[in-house]
Amino acid sequence: MTVACRRVYEKSSASDGARVLVDRVWPRGIRKEDAHLDEWLRDVAPSTELRRWYGHRPDRFPEFRRRYLDELREPGRRRAVDHLRELATGQDLTLLTATKDVEHSQAAVLVERLSGRSSRG
Question: Where are the domains of the chain?
Fold first, then answer.
């Protein structure tokens, strides 16, 4: 299994496997039928408070990552992460986000977590 992340605005590919949007808010300018999603998993997204604090500022990413990993320990989010693991069993999984800087996004943190590269729980 491969877990990857990319922008929801990019054209879908057969190699994507299961496509899951991991943003809390629906992306601007894209119709649901054009997103080619298998699922929209809002429960795995960072809290509104954390997302607003972060503001997609790369200098805040290490602290955002730490706080987000803490949030992923909460029961509802933990179930959502477990669901992503189940989806990735036996197939590729692509986590989608609307952010322009995918490398500094919650999707990148989730890829790390699901791939077992996260140093925290």
Answer: 3-114
Residue 84's nearest CA partner among 75, 76, 93 is 93
Q: What is the pLDDT of residues 23-71, one digit of tens each?
A: 999 999 999 989 999 999 999 999 999 999 999 999 999 999 999 999 9
Tokens of 66: 């730490």
Residue 33 DSSP one-character state: G
Nearest-5° Cα angle at 63, 117 to 61: 75
Note whether 51 and 24 are within 8 A (CB). yes
How far apart (Å, rounded) are the C-alpha atoms in residues 28 and 5? 18
- CA atoms of 104 and 58, how far apart (whole Å): 6
AA letter at 72: L
Strands 39-40 and 93-97: unpaired
Q: What is the pTM of this model?
A: 0.92
